[in-house]
Amino acid sequence: MSETRRVAAFDFDGTITERDTLLGFLVAVGGRTSVASALARNTLGMIMGARDDDARDAAKERVLGEVLRGRSDQEVSEAGETYARLLPERFRQPTIERLRWHQTEGHETIIVSASLIYYLQPLAASLGIGDVIGVEMETDDAGIITGSLAHPNVRAEEKATRLRRHLGDGVVEIWAYGNSSGDDALLTMADHPVWVGKRSARNT
Prior knowledge:
Elements: E1 5-10, H1 22-30, H2 32-41, H3 43-48, H4 53-68, H5 73-84, H6 93-104, E2 108-116, H7 117-127, E3 131-135, E4 137-139, E5 145-149, H8 157-167, E6 172-178, H9 184-188, E7 192-195
Parallel strand pairs: 1-2, 1-6, 2-3, 6-7
Antiparallel strand pairs: 4-5
């Protein structure tokens, strides 16, 4: 029989951090005026997204595209490295303690998040987290961001789908940490689901 892998999967915004980080990054890259304009043009889509996941994902892609389109992947990655250094002050310390426990136990650790890989990857490296599943922008042959997502938004069922694909075959014992309805599918697939923050009363 194959050895059981033990994996701890963490959502990021609201789980590792205390609040959202995506808008702050977009402002750091594109400036407040650009971000405010993109949000204003997509207000209806975001309102519809409160009840419709497809509308929510489409609005998010449009906002990201309006801010990041035409920028080089290198430029955005460098901005991500700078931004990642600002985030530890926003960490939830109890979550970081759980992360350290998993690492001490020799468990694989991974971030599964609807935030952008450009700052998740350097931040994960600084925390000793092995892998990142996150949102990535499509680029053309010259490395310029087209404005579209490279893959579907990593939210709701897509979180579970991407994690299953990442893990592949074999026996896996999964811990999962999340804080919102977007993490429902991720926690449902876990052997040890843990709700963080306001939803922590649902811990099992």
